[in-house]
Design a protein that fits this description.
By secondary structure, this protein is α+β, with helices and mostly antiparallel strands. It has 2 domains: 7-209, Jelly Rolls, CATH 2.60.120.10; 225-327, Orthogonal Bundle (Arc Repressor Mutant, subunit A), CATH 1.10.10. It has 13 helices and 11 strands. The chain has a 7-stranded mixed beta sheet, covered by helices on one side. The radius of gyration is 22 Å and the shape is globular.
Length: 329
Amino acid sequence: MARVPAGLAEIPKLDDTVQYALISDVLRHTRIVSSKQFCYNPTGTWRTDATPAPFKPKEAIGFHIVASGTLWLEYDGVRRTLSEGDIVLLPFGASHWIGVGEGGPILDPGGDLPPAPWEKIPIMRYGDDEAEVRILCGYVISDIKDFAPFRSQLPDLIHLSTQSRDGDDWLAAIVAQIVTEVDLPQVGSPQVLERLTEIALLEVLRRQIVRNPSQVVGWLAAVQDKGLANCLAQIHDRPNKNWTLVKLASEAGQSKSLLSENFRRVLDMSPMQYLRQWRLFLASQKLRHSNESIAEIAFGSCYGTEAAFSRAFKNCYGKSPAAWRDRYS
């Protein structure tokens, strides 16, 4: 399924309780597994290929937070201006350039970083003048992309400005505190900075996914459909219930055939396939974050045997449950 185009995230406008509940449920299960970040302070005219970074894993979500100054970001042949307080999120590590002016030297802060682990946030300075641009760059690895129906709705690039005309965007205060933690590090600053970054990035995602999308298909389109949203809400609220197509159709207020047809049309899967994907997503989180045995997780995910669970999990995630757990241990 094609992802939606890159766009500017706006303030949420949805009013429906079920829609909010579904979106909140996905975000509630979103955690930052790990992150790395550094402060980039170039001066004068410069360019940076911001995509390749030896410290960034393939599955990472890259980001830029502009602490001060103005620069350009070029993605897919289009340039946009970034200003103080702007946040850019790159869910799939899209190739892009950032810079100031034209024809400046190519700087590589990612390649110049000191070896990890870092006791404090590295500050990469270039040039002898006072920094004209200050950017917090880095990545997070998050659960958010592990649920395939939601992952397919994320664009390659999200750009959000926290500088509202009336000055009442609370996210601007989070960005300001992030800058303070970099400029005036204290005991525990790296941990506080990680939590603040997590809050900022989750809010960017929230605004992106509730900005009245016009998609005809996909998870966000299903959330906008009353019947499908009611069905999804029941699955999310009670994933371990002994659901059947008849019971789900009843919750949606539709016949079995109509519900199945709508699921295929909007989500490109059956209701029971969606149920299995949500159960396996919850299982993937338990494998990451809990000490439950694989057998316990299999039973809790409504699989009769560990072997059946392992087959289904590998089909969904490309790794066995044991390999998935080892990857994050």
